[in-house]
Amino acid sequence: MNKSWLSVLIPVYNVRPFLAECLASVLQDGIEGVEVLMLEDCSTDGSDRLAAELAARHAPQVQLLRHAQNGGLSAARNTLLDAAQGDYVWFLDSDDLLLPGSVRDLQACLERFQAPDLVLCDFRTVRERFQLKHRLRGELHFHTFAGPPRTRLSDRAALLRGAFDRGHLHSWSKIARRELWEGLRFPVGRYFEDMATTPALLLRARSYVYMDSVWVGYRQRAGSILASNTVRKVDDMMAALAPVPALLAAQLPSLGAETDFAAGYYAAKTFVTACRFEGRRGDPARLAQHLQSFEAMSPLAPAAVVAGCRARGWWWRALRVGYWLGRATAASKAS
Predict the structure, then answer these.
(1) Which CDD domains would you find in this protein's record (predicted)?
(2) Are residues 61 and 134 in the same domain?
C-alpha cells in the first residue's frame, strides 16, 4: 500500500472532554501509513488548544487544520476531504471512538479482499453508564448492513437495499476510496448531512465488503446534534432524502422491487419521525408539508409502502405509517 493508505478525518468543535480519547483510539494500533487530519471549527471550550497540543505531540502523523469562522459539520468534513491524501477516507466524529484493532482489521480486510471500493462496519454505543437495558436493546452491536459479511460483492442494488434495510446511513461506518468522494460533498449548513450523501456514495462503489465487526464506538451524550429535534433539524431530515428517487432512477434504472421498497420504507420511517415531532408540538398544519416531502423522497407512492409492509406481515409498521399518512392527508385537504 502507499505511504498514506488511510486518512482518518476528525472534525473538532466543543468536544474537549472527549478529544484526547478519540485521537488515542485512532493511534492505538500503531499502524503505519495512516494520516489523521483534525479540523478545528472555532471551538469555544478550549478544544482548539487541546487539538493543537495533540497535533504537536503526534506530528507529523496528526495534522491540524483550522477554519477562520465556524462552518458546521458539513463544511468541516468538506475541508478535510479536500486535504486528505490517503487512498481511503474514514470519517470519525470527535466525541466517538475506534475500537481496539479496528484500523488493523481494516488493513487486513483491504488486503484479503483485493482493495474494494467500500468497506462497511458495525458500531456500538458508548455511554457513561452502560446498564442492562442498554445491553438488552442490542447497543453493544448495531449491524449497519443486511447482507452477507466478509465477502467481496459488486451488486450495487443489493448494497443500497442492505443499507436502507438497516437504516444506518452515517458516514463513519463507511470507509471509502477517496476517489469515490470526487465531486461529492456534504451540504453546508444542514443537519442530517450523512443522509444526503451516503446513497450517492454507495452508488459509486463498484465493489464492497461488509465487515460485521464493531469498529466504531458511537457516544451518546446530551450535547450531540441528534440528542433532540428542532423544526430546523426535522426540515433538514426530510429534505436530505429528496434527491434519492431521481438519483436511483438515473444511475440504476433496474433496482428491483425489493430495493425500491427498502428505500421507500426508510423514507416512511423518516416521515413518521417528523410527524411524531409535529404531534408533540401540536402543529398539524406541518403534517401536510411532510407528506409532500415523503412523496418526493420515496421511490414508491406512500400507499404502496403501506401495502408493502402488509405484504411482508409487518402489521404494526403498516398501522403506524398508515396512521400518520391518514393524519397528514387530512391536514393537506384542510389547508
Answers:
(1) Glyco_tranf_GTA_type (cd00761)
(2) yes
